[in-house]
Write a structure and sequence with these properties.
Length: 159
């Protein structure tokens, strides 16, 4: 299977991705305090979301709400940098998406509940093998793949 056909398989699969991406997708609504121009990484993530048909489910369900997942005491700013991205085809199955209070740390967690038909659910828990990021050949392959998707130069890892 070629790299291109693998990415097409991924585009056609149901995906849920949650994490602290350390960036605000839309700083105008997802950050308070000093608003910096969006970083190149924001534009790259938006292109990847479009390519893989992913939505920021919290913002989709709460378009008029201001809430944050991170507080920087150093900069005295709040930001929503934790995201839950899901395939467009499962938006209808989301029953709720919440940002929990920041207790006891400066980070909040995001909870997303789904009501899926059991016949369609095939969960596999997957974690990246971090040692892969130490391999120069793997880093180069990932960088080339993302570069091909975004058509912009990109530094992925700072090890």
């Amino acid at each position: 299977m070629t790299g291109q056909s693998k990415s097409l398989d991924f585009c056609n699969s149901t995906t849920a991705l949650r994490g602290d991406l350390n960036l605000a997708l839309n700083p105008q609504v997802d950050k308070n305090g000093k608003i910096n121009l969006p970083k190149k990484s924001v534009f790259t993530l938006l292109k990847l979301m479009q390519a893989f048909r992913l939505l920021d489910i919290w913002r989709t369900l709460h378009s008029d709400v201001t809430d944050y997942t991170f507080y920087s005491s150093r900069h005295q700013t709040f930001s929503r940098i934790d995201l839950f991205l899901i395939s467009q085809d499962i938006v209808e199955s989301v029953t709720q998406c919440l940002i929990h209070p920041k207790v006891p740390s400066d980070l909040s967690s995001i909870q997303t509940d789904f009501e899926l038909q059991s016949a369609q659910v095939h969960f596999k828990q997957w974690r990246v093998n971090n040692s892969l990021f130490e391999d120069p050949k793997t880093k180069k392959q990932i960088s080339e793949y993302i570069h091909a998707l975004t058509k912009t130069p990109l530094t992925i890892f700072q090890l």
